[in-house]
Amino acid sequence: MLFVTAVDMDYPEYTEELSRQFWMRVWSRDEGITEDEHFTQAAKKAGMKDDIIKKALKRSKDKDVADRLQAFADEARANGAFGAPTMIVHVNGEKEMLFGSDRFNILAEMLGEKFDGPQNQLSKNKILTRYKSKWKNMDLKLKPLSQDAVLQGSGNQLPGNVPIKMQYILQDLARLGQHNEVPFKIPSDLKDVMFVKGSRPAMLFLTAVDMNHPEYTEELSRQLWLRVWSRDEGITTDDDISEAATKAGIKKEMIVKCLNSAKEQYVSDQFKAYTDEALSLGVKYMKVH
């Protein structure tokens, strides 16, 4: 990074391609990026001439280059960055932060440009459900799981434990909702919803439904989500769950049966099995056979 910073300060026209070549060395060819020889090889592939490379190598050891790299890091933190890639977008006098390469579609929309690249996760999920009747070779199965358990089991911190990340996630969800025409609204007592009440009763009910009447899994999931993230309603009591199930088209006698089943150990075991499978593969995954 010190070498890239030196190049960026004196020869910024090479910054992008040099960054790409460093990435390719590590993540494509399993090569090093810690020695002068590594820097030289990457720089040559980036189109830099020998004399410029030598100057940049010498320059990268100067204190002002280290200071500039620190200044870039400080600027990123001041703008709310918590990882890479982070993009700061200035539109109509307002500053917005975007995180992750799967947000380029949002960036394009902000800039009034067309985006032809891959879709974000929310769009992927919509496409999957939309095309399940058209893609004859796909038998789509949606399964409930405990995201808290997956995060803890994988060693990740819960978003609420990283305030700057939580703040971004809420802003990002609102943007995604608008971009994908999903009615999103932050609950009035977010802390209570996420860290006190949780969603386990609803997930156990969803598991019971999935085990006995999987044809309702998708729509019930949608109705439970809408209650929390669109209408600021609960999903923890039997009444809450029954209302969601009714909107999903489930008959009353089936709802009562699944409410009772949701309290049985075998349903809890199945819910854990779904979660353990997700933990083995990574949450928000698509397992293809």
TrEMBL record:
Has the keyword Transferase been applied to this entry? yes
Q: Name one GO cellular component term.
A: peroxisome
Q: What is its EC number?
A: 2.5.1.18
All copies of domain DSBA-like thioredoxin, residue ranges: 15-111, 126-283
Q: Which residues cross the membrane?
A: none
Give the UniProt keywords, A-Z.
Transferase
Q: Does the keyword S-adenosyl-L-methionine apply?
A: no
Instruction: Provide the GO biological process annotations.
Output: glutathione metabolic process
GO molecular-function terms, A-Z: glutathione peroxidase activity; glutathione transferase activity
PANTHER family in the cross-refs: GLUTATHIONE S-TRANSFERASE KAPPA, GLUTATHIONE S-TRANSFERASE KAPPA 1
Q: What is this protein called?
A: GSTK1
Q: Supply the source organism for this entry.
A: Mytilus coruscus
